[in-house]
Amino acid sequence: MTNTQDNARSILVIGATGPTGIEICKQALAAGMKVRVLVRTPSRLPADLSSRLEVMQGDVLNSDAMIAATRGMDAVVSALGTPLQRTPVTLLSRGTQNIMQAMGQTGVSRLLCITGMGAGDSRGHGGFLYDRVILPLLLGQIYIDKDRQEQLVRASNLDWTLIRPAFLTNGVKTGQYRCIGQFEKHDRMGKISRADVAHFVVQELQRGEYLRQVANLSY
């Protein structure tokens, strides 16, 4: 595959109308990157941001739309999210599968995929309230699909990075946070701002320090 350079100059952001996706777009633009977004409802983008993006209307589950959006990019950032629900969730895994297929067809190999604390081997490291209440009662179905999402990414031949933020806040960017690859038994992750998650994403696009690795983020 092509486009494996560490310093990505053109990126596609999926999930760009969510609060984390918006922050990623802002910081990537500030870093001098060309930012393309694929969104179902362009009007959900802030007007002052939308004017600086290349906006394509479409759905992550539409193969043709994904291929068109991915073509010519150096990297794809997935900040896919889904509303809280108690019924089975498949959007994250199906969307990620579609993203990866489009990348394969367009020769783009760099993927940064944001999942969350509680996915994969991070389960049990989120702190008492998160692990015992929030995750099982509110996020259970979503995290079943996040597990599938991570398995798909890990099994791919892409230059992937899985990013697992702790409990997300709307705080400011500090640039000061922990990034843990492998957990020790007693490691606990608390919270992190969306702005600092975006800070990590932009740095990783520039440096490529976590190729085919997991980055668990928390203060």
Automatic annotation (TrEMBL):
Gene3D superfamilies: NAD(P)-binding Rossmann-like Domain. It comes from the Bacteria. Pfam families: NAD_binding_10. One of its GO terms (molecular function) is biliverdin reductase [NAD(P)H] activity. Residues 15-206 form the NAD(P)-binding domain. This is 3 beta-hydroxysteroid dehydrogenase. It comes from Ferriphaselus amnicola. The lineage of its organism: Bacteria, Pseudomonadati, Pseudomonadota, Betaproteobacteria, Nitrosomonadales.
